[in-house]
């Protein structure tokens, strides 16, 4: 039986070429340990693409469409690695991505790792907004305890993930922030600014940066106030 040190879980809902690009980047990983790739796929075309790619070890067909938190939990449930890494089907990771995440777990206190996001698409507006919202924002929040591992660039020590119960799949969004904050009970959640990933700006193009920021601000308030929860309907 192959020894697996790290497992990558990719939720993919109705994706085509974007998923192929993500899987190609995972196939290029420079990682000395055992690595497995699990795709939780929704949609017949997505399932076919995932099953055809040589780097994928397991494909879970998921027609429930319950959101990324639920899909990530399904993938994590069958993963065998001591470190669980999560990225999305519209994201390209660098060849050192798995190695850079895993090096943090040599420190026993570390239970999770997150890194910045960069835009796949060109344009000054995208580069500037991503730098502010997906890097500087994290750098400012992390030291005061408001840790927010982005779902497409995060990893978790398996025992800590199981101890906190994984992602809360009842949340419509901010499920990655919620997991990060609960992980703090188990140990240190590290931010590695040298480990970025490139992700699609299609959501930003669709709704605009202003509306997206407002939605997340409202979501943070709903998350913080007792009895409220970020609404499922937005995404």
UniProtKB/TrEMBL annotation:
One of its GO terms (cellular component) is plasma membrane. Keywords: Cell membrane, Glycosyltransferase, Membrane, Transferase. Transmembrane segments: none annotated. Signal peptide: none annotated. Residues 7-128 form the Glycosyltransferase 2-like domain. InterPro entries: Glyco_trans_2-like, Nucleotide-diphossugar_trans. GO terms for molecular function: glycosyltransferase activity. The keyword Repeat does not apply. The keyword Glycosyltransferase applies. It is found in: Cell membrane. SUPFAM superfamilies: Nucleotide-diphospho-sugar transferases (SSF53448). It comes from the Archaea. This is Glycosyltransferase. It comes from Natrinema zhouii.
